[in-house]
Design a protein that fits this description.
This protein has 19 helices and 2 strands. It is an all-alpha fold. 33% of the residues are buried. Its main location: membrane.
Length: 485
């Protein structure tokens, strides 16, 4: 047989093996899109400016990341949404990412138990109330469509709940992967916050980088960084503290990692965030044994004393800024102070709920009259700092109660599973049990329920909680004897 014929037969065999039924699905679903995308980008590089070509290449790389490494892709998605120069870009990235994740789960044939019935029922009820509120906003209240979009976009992010649950519950180490993603997000928020604080340049579109000003008892040199995502930082601080307590992380390493997170909280200068995070670190005392509780208190006391003493010697201005910020609360309460404006918000919201308690004013509706003094913040007629009143005004009191019921069922279901959780997941479960109360507390003065990034945090914590009271959703390892905890 000639050499040419041998090559021909070998090529035919290889080609035939390539197009077998087993390989056809992967060829169609992966390599064909890659080929078409590469061809499209190549043509764009010839026709379009380099900036647009680079953007297209980055978009294709982002899609590939979501498909190949979903957990890394989810972390990248949160970072993209955080850095988006406009919230419409973040929403577009959210929709695209959701569709890609659903497509990836379908092609990989991921099998996972359904969301726990108690959570599934209340989630569907909450979704029905949201749909009803949107319908009333359009056809009954006749709210402006741009306002409906700006107020209602946050509910889109709740669709991550079934997707993230399927991703987590379908993998034996899904809980560990989700925890790692949350930690990466927390440190990304800290890096962005500190970078803006040092440079004074705002790179995160949502938020503010500005001086605290003399109204808070500060000089103009003290810069405050306001941006979304600090709840991730609070969660990470509690998690690392418990890791040190349970000797999963070395004391010095854990202390250094916590100090980095505390720096992020410092540049935020949020009194409520500081107070509730500290409470969150103490809340595990109610769930752990007496010996560990004493050890936790002693660790916090020693670490706090050493930190304060070191700062007093090395950087006393930090302590001065913190004390002045905490003491500045005594200046609140006047008519034109932060607390005074929030009192006015709450009063107007209560009047609105007295008139329409069941449906509120609808998504995008205005609950109070225009104030000339707040003309620079044109959304003040729709905006509330109190999350509970914010949701009640938009969805009605039934909508608020349904959302709180979802939080409660997630927390209580996880609490019941605390005694049975395997040792490797105990720290994560304790962190979630401690996080929910502080999130509920912060939400009294911050609109966390209506913040898209906080909703992502709530979704992740609900998924983690659900992972501990659904049989078979966590790795099947025998629990240690009760005394080992």
């Amino acid at each position: 047989m000639s050499t040419l014929r041998q090559y021909s037969i070998g090529f035919s065999s290889a080609l035939g093996g390539l197009f077998t039924k087993a390989n056809f699905k992967s060829l169609l679903l992966f390599w064909l899109p890659v080929f078409l995308a590469s061809t499209f980008i190549g043509l764009c590089c010839v026709i379009l400016p380099w900036v647009l070509s680079a953007g297209l290449a980055a978009a294709v790389a982002y899609v590939a990341l979501l498909l190949i490494w979903p957990w890394v892709g989810f972390g990248a998605y949160v970072f993209v949404a955080l850095m988006a120069p406009d919230f419409k870009i973040a929403d577009f990235a959210t929709v695209v990412s959701m569709l890609i994740f659903i497509f990836g789960l379908w092609t990989r044939g991921k099998v996972a138990p359904p969301l726990p019935r108690k959570l599934r029922t209340v989630s569907l009820l909450f979704a029905a109330i949201v749909v009803l509120s949107f319908s009333l906003s359009v056809f009954y209240f006749h709210n402006k469509l741009p306002n409906i979009y700006r107020d209602g976009r946050v509910f889109l992010y709740w669709l991550w709940l079934p997707i993230l649950w399927r991703m987590t519950a379908s993998e034996a180490d899904g809980v560990h992967k989700l925890v790692r993603v949350l930690l990466v997000i927390a440190y990304s928020v800290v890096v962005l916050a500190v970078m803006q604080w040092v440079t004074g340049v705002q790179v995160v579109a949502v938020g503010l980088v500005a001086s605290l000003g003399t109204t808070s008892g500060f000089g103009e040199s003290v810069t405050r960084v306001q941006m979304p995502g600090f709840l991730f930082v609070s969660w990470a601080i509690i998690w690392l503290t418990l890791q040190v307590l349970y000797k999963r992380v070395n004391l010095l390493v854990g202390g250094a990692l916590i100090l980095v997170l505390l720096l992020g909280l410092y540049v935020n200068f949020g009194r409520g965030l500081w107070a509730w995070t500290f409470i969150g670190v103490l809340l595990p005392l109610f769930f752990i044994g007496g010996g560990r509780a004493i050890k936790l208190l002693a660790t916090i006391l020693v670490a706090g004393t050493l930190s304060i003493g070191t700062l007093a010697l090395v950087k006393p201005t930090v302590l001065e800024n913190v004390s002045e910020r905490l003491l500045s609360v005594k200046n609140e309460g006047g008519r034109r102070t932060s607390y005074g404006w929030r009192q006015l918000e709450n009063h107007e919201a209560m009047l609105t709920l007295q008139r329409t308690p069941l449906v509120g004013v609808g998504v995008g509706g205005e609950y109070r009259p225009w104030l000339h003094e707040l003309r620079l913040f044109y959304e003040h007629v729709r905006y509330l700092h109190n999350s509970y009143l914010f949701v009640a005004v938009k969805l009605g009191i039934p909508g608020l109660l349904c959302l709180l019921l979802l939080y409660w069922r997630a927390w209580y279901g996880a609490r019941k599973g605390l005694s049975e959780v395997v040792a490797e997941h105990r720290v994560t479960l304790l962190t979630c049990l401690s996080f929910f109360p502080i999130a509920m507390g912060i939400s009294m003065t911050q609109p966390e329920f209506m913040n898209t990034y906080s909703v992502l945090q709530f979704v992740a914590v609900i998924v983690l909680c659900a992972s501990f009271f659904v049989p078979g959703s966590t790795p099947a390892k025998p629990p240690r004897p009760r005394g080992a905890y």
